[in-house]
């Protein structure tokens, strides 16, 4: 099944029209994305750090933790999963293991970035990038390690915020030559920069929309018209959930009840129906002796 999903996603990337991939940090948010009708989802490393560790996106999650989360998410949905694999969690040898583990989990695309280790969110300050030659080696290692040729390798450069747009373009071009299938230039600072990138990169491009980040917030249709193939909204749901939880806990603390919030939540039955409880009732009827 996972090979079929990968193959279809690779074919979709080669077709016209932009792919909107909302961010998911667990299986529940992944199921909600699938039920909303999206073509793919983005497994957000930042969101997983926020919700698993209660810490910022500063490179604290491990490769094994992320691979395990990827397996849970891939098991929960039947749409392609684009997985954030940070720096690959080390050098080219670590990248090789990361690609093996993530591919085994069932993802359709793996994103690797050129920050040094430990990395941090691309929209935070004080980032650093590794030497170009080192990142080229990591991309080549990823390409050579994948078993399924339909697994897409996304190369991300964070160089824009450190050494300027020209170096980011040059790095992206080198990553294409190294075998990357999709290019992601992080933290572009205005619409002109998003447009300029499309003139220099002859591979599918991914855009990252971060509410309150360094890049302007643009619609999928606007990015599509520029020539982008994928747009991710990595932590939109994380921020919405955090705000909703703040409101809920404030209400509960002040009133001692959640009654005033009932119209803003799924009730017990609705949530279980959403997660397919009926299917498990049917399985029980089939296998449990009465």
From TrEMBL:
It comes from the Bacteria. Involved in the methylcitric acid cycle. Catalyzes the cleavage of 2-methylisocitrate to yield pyruvate and succinate. It comes from Bacillus salipaludis. Keywords: Lyase. Belongs to the isocitrate lyase/PEP mutase superfamily. Methylisocitrate lyase family. This is 2-methylisocitrate lyase. It catalyses: 3-hydroxybutane-1,2,3-tricarboxylate = pyruvate + succinate. One of its GO terms (molecular function) is methylisocitrate lyase activity. InterPro entries: ICL/PEPM, Isocitrate_lyase_ph_CS, Pyrv/PenolPyrv_kinase-like_dom, Pyrv_kinase-like_dom_sf. The keyword Lyase applies. PANTHER family: CARBOXYVINYL-CARBOXYPHOSPHONATE PHOSPHORYLMUTASE, CHLOROPLASTIC, PHOSPHOENOLPYRUVATE CARBOXYLASE. The keyword Lyase applies. The lineage of its organism: Bacteria, Bacillati, Bacillota, Bacilli, Bacillales. CDD domains: ICL_PEPM.
């Amino acid at each position: 099944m996972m090979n079929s999903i990968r193959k279809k996603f690779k074919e979709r990337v080669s077709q016209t029209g932009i792919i909107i991939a909302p961010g998911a940090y667990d299986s529940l948010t992944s199921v909600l994305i699938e039920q909303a009708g999206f073509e793919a989802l983005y497994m957000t490393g930042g969101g997983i750090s926020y919700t698993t560790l209660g810490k910022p996106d500063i490179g604290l999650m491990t490769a094994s933790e992320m691979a395990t989360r990827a397996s849970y998410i891939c098991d929960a949905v039947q749409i392609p999963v684009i997985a954030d694999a940070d720096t690959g969690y080390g050098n080219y040898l670590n990248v090789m293991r990361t690609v093996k583990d993530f591919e085994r989990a069932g993802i359709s695309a793996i994103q690797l970035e050129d920050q040094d280790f430990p990395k941090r969110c691309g929209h935070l300050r004080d980032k650093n990038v590794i030497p170009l030659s080192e990142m080229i080696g990591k991309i080549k290692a990823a390409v050579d390690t994948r078993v399924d040729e339909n697994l897409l390798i996304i190369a991300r450069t964070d160089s824009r915020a450190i050494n300027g747009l020209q170096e980011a373009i040059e790095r992206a071009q080198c990553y294409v030559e190294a075998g990357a299938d999709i290019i992601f230039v992080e933290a572009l600072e205005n619409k002109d920069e998003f447009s300029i990138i499309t003139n220099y990169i002859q591979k599918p491009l991914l855009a990252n929309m971060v509410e309150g980040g360094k890049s302007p917030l643009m619609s999928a249709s606007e990015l599509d018209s520029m020539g982008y193939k994928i747009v991710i909204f990595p932590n939109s749901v994380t921020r919405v959930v955090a705000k909703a939880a703040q409101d809920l806990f404030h209400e509960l603390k002040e009133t001692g009840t959640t009654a005033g919030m009932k119209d803003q939540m799924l009730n017990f039955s609705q949530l279980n129906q959403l997660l397919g409880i009926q299917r498990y009732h049917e399985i029980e009827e089939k296998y449990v002796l009465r």
